[in-house]
Backbone:
């Protein structure tokens, strides 16, 4: 929104100084303190010979005010400029009104395709709160690219292949229940997996205590049988694959229910099992390029000179591993989607694995090796539920909803006015979790704190939802309607100028976010905007004011509400209109 003013400043400063406008304009930024000016030029960035403070003084004295930039004042090596606030306010509020939910969007990515791979739970293991981070961060990155014009594809790459499925099949024969499988496949398959793993461990301890002859006579162990079962899956055994396919299908249906609750949509449900001939092609390419070495029948890629150790790609029995399947998947994805960029949203615990993958793809000489990006994140500490230490995401979402519902019920008068309080409690609970997760840089570990996140005050999800709902209420109760032609020259108070400044910065926030892929940039922005609105609430009223003043203020508040709602949606949250 400030681009027109920055260009005007750059043009005149260039004429006065002889410095190219292309150098001047990037040196002009929004002032940190609007009491000193609206825009600030950092003179040292012009790379002019002489004392920067003296140059600033001279340029400010030579400045000719016009209808756009009304004044200039030197402050050490800086020049603070005053702009025509009415022109700015009008252009900002008109832009919000004209574009609505697409305010700040660009076509920067037009004609380019990105795959964002995120969430990616392992079937038969808990769909736990750790997956929440990948899910919500990945969803944000996916939505952000769409906002910048990219052809974005959201992909869920399920952990649905490997020896553990042989173990799971054996476990289901012993401990499985058809009824429980249909009722809650994720929970039941995990319970089965825990039981069969415990049985395998107990068996291993018994065998360890035996002499060699007795151990040999004991026959194949559970782990041996699991390896054999998985080998039969890789060899295409129909009965083995049928059971595995059933586990996979039922689990995906349950995942979809959880994702729907989180407002997350996947364009593609993929998985390790879906990688086809890409794996054998990957092995062949590694062999042809001389990257593959053998050790006791196993096949490895030696990445030690790149400080990435040796990477196992095929076991001695011929079965594949994560890295093999990931290389094969990368080859197949490029051939199918012809992506310009692929982003893996995976925890920092997998940094080494992703480095091995990217380096191997690079060493294979694949022409798209520079299109891979790993977006990592830290760990969550202190998350537990009433059900115990294994924290299923479904349980966490349910508990957050119930806790928020309890908070809402405490104010009986307000609670009775809420339409569909169950749904509102669910949205507020998810908002509490998501905003705490996204409030700081994603690489940072953080401690989960129920007491803090459920607060309606402070920098929390419920506080942001309350700010949005309160603005919706103001609009409903106003005696005037939102009028894009309102006389915005009446918005002269310092606090209204601050709100307009905040609204004007949203396109810059989106531009910064697509570079950093940090959700906290958006979270901190809407928190600051919400604080500014809170500061204006008692003094900048709409009800009881003259129509022209009320219309100008309502347009400002409506624009702020639109931006907060847009930002919440970008973060994967449903903006609440009443609570």
Residues:
């Amino acid at each position: 929104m400030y681009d027109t003013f920055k260009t005007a400043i750059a043009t005149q400063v260039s004429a006065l100084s002889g410095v190219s406008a292309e150098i001047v304009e990037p040196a002009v930024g929004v002032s940190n303190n609007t009491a000193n000016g609206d825009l600030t030029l950092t003179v040292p960035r012009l790379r002019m010979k002489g004392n920067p403070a003296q140059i600033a003084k001279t340029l400010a004295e030579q400045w000719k005010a016009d209808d756009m930039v009304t004044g200039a004042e030197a402050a050490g090596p800086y020049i603070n400029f005053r702009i025509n606030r009415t022109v700015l306010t009008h252009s900002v509020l008109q832009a919000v009104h004209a574009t609505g939910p697409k305010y700040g969007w660009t076509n920067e990515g037009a004609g380019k395709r990105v795959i964002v791979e995120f969430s990616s739970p392992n079937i038969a293991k808990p769909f736990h709160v750790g997956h929440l981070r990948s899910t919500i961060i990945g969803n944000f990155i996916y939505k952000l690219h769409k906002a910048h014009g990219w052809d974005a594809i959201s992909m869920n790459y399920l952990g649905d292949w490997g020896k553990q499925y042989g173990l799971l099949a054996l476990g289901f024969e012993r401990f499985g229940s058809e009824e429980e499988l249909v009722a809650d496949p994720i929970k039941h398959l995990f319970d089965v997996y825990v039981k069969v793993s415990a049985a395998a461990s107990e068996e291993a301890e018994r065998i360890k205590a035996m002499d060699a002859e007795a151990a040999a006579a004991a026959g194949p162990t559970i782990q041996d049988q699991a390896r054999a079962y998985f080998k039969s899956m890789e060899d295409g055994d129909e009965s083995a694959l049928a059971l595995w396919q059933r586990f996979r299908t039922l689990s995906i249906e349950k995942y979809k229910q959880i994702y729907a609750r989180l407002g997350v949509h996947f364009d593609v449900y993929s998985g390790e099992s879906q990688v086809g001939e890409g794996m054998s092609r990957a092995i062949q390419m590694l062999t042809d390029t001389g990257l593959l070495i053998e050790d006791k029948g196993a096949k490895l890629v030696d990445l030690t000179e790149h400080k990435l150790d040796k990477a196992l790609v095929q076991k001695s029995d011929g079965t594949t591993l994560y890295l093999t399947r990931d290389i094969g998947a990368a080859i197949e994805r490029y051939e199918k989607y012809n992506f310009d960029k692929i982003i893996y949203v995976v925890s920092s615990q997998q940094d080494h694995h992703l480095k091995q993958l990217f380096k191997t793809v690079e060493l294979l000489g694949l022409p798209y090796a520079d299109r891979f990006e790993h977006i990592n994140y830290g760990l969550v500490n202190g998350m537990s539920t009433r059900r115990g230490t294994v924290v299923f995401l479904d349980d966490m979402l349910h508990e957050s909803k119930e806790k928020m519902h309890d908070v809402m019920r405490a104010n009986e008068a307000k609670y009775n006015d809420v339409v569909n309080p169950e749904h509102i409690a669910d949205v507020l609970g998810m908002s509490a979790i998501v905003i705490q997760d996204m409030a700081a840089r994603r690489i940072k570990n953080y401690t989960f704190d129920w007491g803090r996140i459920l607060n309606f005050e402070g920098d929390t999800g419920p506080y942001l939802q309350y700010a949005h709902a309160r603005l919706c209420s103001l609009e409903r109760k106003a005696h005037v309607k939102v009028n894009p032609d309102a006389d915005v020259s009446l918005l002269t108070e310092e606090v209204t100028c601050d709100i307009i400044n905040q609204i004007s910065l949203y396109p810059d926030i989106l531009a910064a976010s697509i570079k950093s892929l940090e959700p906290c940039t958006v979270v901190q922005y809407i928190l600051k905007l919400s604080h500014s609105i809170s500061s204006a609430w008692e003094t900048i009223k709409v009800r009881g004011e003259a129509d022209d003043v009320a219309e100008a203020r309502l347009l400002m508040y409506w624009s702020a509400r639109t931006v907060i709602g847009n930002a919440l949606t970008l973060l994967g949250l449903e903006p609440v209109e009443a609570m």
Notes: The first helix runs from residue 3 to 17. The chain has a mean pLDDT of 91. The chain has 23 helices and 14 strands.
